[in-house]
Amino acid sequence: MTVGRNMQDQGGRGETSRLEAFSDGVFAIALTILVLDLRLPPVENVTPSGLISAVLDLWPSYFAFALSFATILIMWINHHARMGLIQRIDGLLMFANGLVLFMVVTLSFPTAIVGEYLTGPAAKGAVFTYAVFVLATSGAWNVFMVAMKPERGLLRPTVPASAIATTRRRVAFGFTVYLVAAGLSLVNAYLGLGLITAMWGFWGVVAYRALNEHRAWSTEATEA
Amino acid sequence: MTVGRNMQDQGGRGETSRLEAFSDGVFAIALTILVLDLRLPPVENVTPSGLISAVLDLWPSYFAFALSFATILIMWINHHARMGLIQRIDGLLMFANGLVLFMVVTLSFPTAIVGEYLTGPAAKGAVFTYAVFVLATSGAWNVFMVAMKPERGLLRPTVPASAIATTRRRVAFGFTVYLVAAGLSLVNAYLGLGLITAMWGFWGVVAYRALNEHRAWSTEATEA
Amino acid sequence: MTVGRNMQDQGGRGETSRLEAFSDGVFAIALTILVLDLRLPPVENVTPSGLISAVLDLWPSYFAFALSFATILIMWINHHARMGLIQRIDGLLMFANGLVLFMVVTLSFPTAIVGEYLTGPAAKGAVFTYAVFVLATSGAWNVFMVAMKPERGLLRPTVPASAIATTRRRVAFGFTVYLVAAGLSLVNAYLGLGLITAMWGFWGVVAYRALNEHRAWSTEATEA
Amino acid sequence: MTVGRNMQDQGGRGETSRLEAFSDGVFAIALTILVLDLRLPPVENVTPSGLISAVLDLWPSYFAFALSFATILIMWINHHARMGLIQRIDGLLMFANGLVLFMVVTLSFPTAIVGEYLTGPAAKGAVFTYAVFVLATSGAWNVFMVAMKPERGLLRPTVPASAIATTRRRVAFGFTVYLVAAGLSLVNAYLGLGLITAMWGFWGVVAYRALNEHRAWSTEATEA
């Protein structure tokens, strides 16, 4: 019977790791194609120093590219940590994961807009657009956390309910911050963008800790 | 001799999972590059609110992007469920799988057309084009189901013939619906697009059920 | 000692499958991004039937896309079959594999040219360009086959030398055919393109047979 | 207790191979999308020979494409060899790896610039830009090597400290060479580009040796 149980678990893990591999692929591609918007507009009869300053003038595009790259990389780490707590998948989690992937893929669109309009008169509109997409991404993560609720029975038995509660609070907190960032961006584009940038510093720390905590639980799980 | 049988099976599964991994990669990339057609046409001296309304005006592109994203994601889930029933691959299945991947990859082309022309005078032509590509995709899936016929001997022994028959009927039904959608789109673009959109709600439910059924058979298979 | 030998073999297989996974990724991406050149040039105030005929007028692009898609898909199958015969990797094989991947990735460039110029006055130049790239790809495969020579000691012990000799002859034959196709395309674009298209029918058959032969050897290998 | 130790090791290896698979994906995509900048500008009413010379005139783009393709392929091999020495991941290594991936992805941007401007009056500016990006990539690798320092405890116990020291010296040497190349490119574009090209010949040799050395250590590790 223990063997039966193990088999079922393996079956469950098989589905989970398949979904993880697919999601990893989408994260990796979404992150890489961001660079396709980093292109110099054609310049005629330019001098070497003229070309170098044209390259430097693209700094808003570099910044937006770096911000979105870091955002997707950190979301990937957090996705992994969260998937590591899951034992089996159901319809709601599948849907929530699809929603997260959809937003991850979509991020290249507002990134291109910030790169193009950050230094022009429409800067506030550009950052507002970016903030709204980040807010929707955060919304998708909130649905994901609902799908992971301990009472829904998808978690590995060694995962403490308190850990999920902490992550849910953080994800809900993130949603509030991005809401503020969207409002703030209509007042001052740089303030709004600064708040979003500060947030991924926070998520970077969460990502690192979550990985460590997850490893601890996995060890427990295999030792138990 | 049992070991010999198992080895052969493993060999077969090795080929199958290799094809699955490759197909997964194509699905993931096809789904991600859809976003590359979501780009704002350059606007000069625009105000923040002008930029935001330019972003909102792109809604047909968002809709077409979301529709094709969901379509490919659901086809991926169904592809997985169907591949999970297969024990070994032959030439016809390889060919049918290649045809399905070809249509999956191609979907970004009519998606861009719907995004561009849905609100203009050529809307009917745009949705008709989209419907024809979806119809061809459905055709590829019908060939795939022929290759999976129980009498062709590729299925795992635990898979009931009735399950395949049900899936074949659904896939044939889908073809008819897309044929109607193509005709309907020449009368009214929104009706045609609405029918296609409704169909992926149906496939989403099929995908979820198929996954569950497949898991049950796998368990049987490992228990037998 | 047998165990030591097996470990070494596994180590070798580990490197091989890592290279295979990476190569698979490149094949999958190269094949998918072909669709990015399938885009309708913007048309203003077009009618539904005008849009549909604009879509139909793109047929050279569809043909070139389908040809290159099939080419890469079949090369992927053949790549797999050939890698399956290999036990360990050395520098020359690594280099030859890199060269093959380079040509696979590059194929989207002449594909776009054929799509654009096949029906215009420069058709012969477009098909000639395509043929030269296919010829270079065939050259890379010839280097790959040199790296796989039995006397170089990379093959699995169960692989008969005759099988390698057959594949080498076919790959060398392909090079000659593409050379003829390049010359022919300067006389008549459609004849040149027809010969290249006919060749991938040949490779499709080779791919299917190679897969079957490989499976047979694997079984031998595990049984031995 | 040995079993416990082994489990922990496996857990560590699990994280490592997950990071490796993700990184492999990014390398493969970054390398493939380089081809998207290899496009012929539209030409009207061109003759076959006119089209062929337009294709030949793109040689700076081919050269830049081939250089960056080889650069990323060789970095992938070196990345693999270095990851093979690692037993577990910590925050600094994760960050350093993210930085390396960021620079790998970014490389397509200066590649497009060299392709566009190498034969024009701004050639020095184009190669200088390329050299600066390669220099930053080298900087990321230097951080990576700091994260791999033996005293940080991430290495497999069988890896000799001298091997890491050698790699660190080479990576630091590379940084100096790219610094010289950046300076040189402001004097003569072709000299700067020639030095960068020569360097990847060096890295190619390192990559090949590193793979061999790594295989030796792995064997030791499994034999110990």
Short overview:
The structure is a homotetramer of 224-residue chains. Chain A contains eight helices and no strands. Chain A is mainly α.
Overall tally of structural domains of chain A: 1
Helix content of chain A: over 70%
How many helices of chain A in DSSP terms? Answer: 8
Question: What general outline of chain A do the C-alpha atoms trace?
Answer: elongated
Estimated radius of gyration of chain A: 20 Å
Low-pLDDT parts of chain A are: 1-12, 216-224
Described by strand count, sense and barrel closure, the largest sheet of chain A is:
none
The average pLDDT of chain A is: 85
Strand content of chain A: under 5%
This entry's quaternary arrangement is: homotetramer
Give the SSE string of chain A: HHHHHHHH
Task: Report the largest inter-chain contact.
Answer: A-B, 38 and 41 residues
Strand pairing plus helix content of chain A: what structural class? mainly alpha
Task: Please give the alpha-carbon distance between the first and last residues of chain A.
Answer: 17 Å
- The count of DSSP E runs of length 2 or more, i.e. the number of strands of chain A, is 0
Describe this structure as you would to a colleague.
The structure is a homotetramer of 224-residue chains. With 224 residues, chain A is mainly alpha-helical. Chain A has one domain. Chain A is built from 8 helices and no strands. Chains in contact: A-B, A-D, B-C, C-D. The A-B interface holds A 4, 7-8, 11, 14-15, 18, 21-22, 25-26, 29-30, 33, 36, 91, 94, 98, 101-102, 105-106, 108-109, 112-113, 116-117, 120-126, 128-129, 186 and B 21, 24-25, 27-29, 31-36, 38-40, 42-43, 45-52, 55, 65-66, 69-70, 73, 76-77, 80, 208, 211, 215, 218-219, 222-223.
